[in-house]
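Z., the sequence and structure:
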Amino acid sequence: MPGVTVKDVDAQAFVEAYAKYLKRSGRVVLPKYVDYAKTAPRKELAPADPDWYYVRCASIARRVYVKGGVGVGWLARAYGGNSNKGVRRNHHVNAASGVIRSCIQSLESMKVLEQGKNGGRVVTSTGRRDLDRIAAQIAGAKKVYKKREKK
C-alpha cells in the first residue's frame, strides 16, 4: 500500500512485526548478557520473553522514526518508570542505558539508524524504506481482515 508509514499503523502491531523481521533476518547480533540482563535497575528479574531484545530494538527503531534526533539519555528516560519502594513514595528511574546503547549499535550496523547532524540518532533512508514496507504489510493485512469480517 503506497503512502502508509509507521505513524499510520498500530504501534504494538508494528513492533511485534518488526521484531519478527529482525529475528528472521539474523542481522542483529545478540549480546552475551541477553539471557540474564534486566531492562532497568527498578526491575527484579530479566524479561520472561526470550525475544525481548528484538522487541526492544524494534521499539527503539519506531521511537527514533517517530521522534527523530533522540539519544541514549532520552530513550532511557522514555523507557524508565517508577520504582517500587514499598511504603515510601515512588520515584522515576531511568531504564538500563547499556541495553539501549547496544540496540542502537545493532540498528546502526544494519544501516537502519545513523548519527544525526545535531546529535542523537535519526533513521536512514534505507531504514525508513524498510520500516515503511513493514508498516504497509501490517496495514494491508488489517484491510484484508476487515474485508473478511464483513462477509
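The helical segments are 11-25, 52-67, 72-79, 97-109, 125-150. The mean pLDDT is 89.

Let me know what you think.
H.
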